[in-house]
Amino acid sequence: MSIKSKLHEIKETFKGKKMAPAFNAFHTFLYTPNEVTSSGTHVKVADDLKRTMNTVIMSLVPCLIFGIFNAGYQHNLAIDAANGIYTQASLFGNFLTFENLMIGSMKVLPLVIVSYVVGLTVEFIFAVIKGHEVEEGYLVTGMLVPLIVPVDLPLWMLAVSVVFGVIIGKEVFGGTGMNILNPALTIRAFLFFAYPTWMSGDKVWVHDAVNRAGTPDAISGETILGSYAQNQEIIYSLSDMFYGFIPGSVGETSKLLIVFGALFLIFSKIGSWRIITSTLLGALVMGLIFNGVIETGLVTNSSKFYGLMSVPFWEHLLIGSILFGAVFMATDPVTAAQTNKGKWIYGFLIGFISIMIRVFNPAYPEGVFLAILLMNVFAPTIDHFVIQSNVKMRLNRLKIKTA
Amino acid sequence: MALLSKKDTKLITDPLSDNNPITVQVLGICSALAITAELEASVVMSVSVLFVMGVGNVVISMIRNIVPSKIRIIVQLTVIATLVIIVDLVLKAFAYELSKTLSVFIGLIITNCIIMGRFEAFALGNGLWRSFLDGIGNAFGYAVILIIVGFFRELLGSGTLWGIAVLGDPIDKTGLYALGYENNGFMLLSPMALIVVGIIIWVQRARSKHLIED
Question: Looking at residue B1, what is its pLDDT?
Answer without folding.
Answer: 45
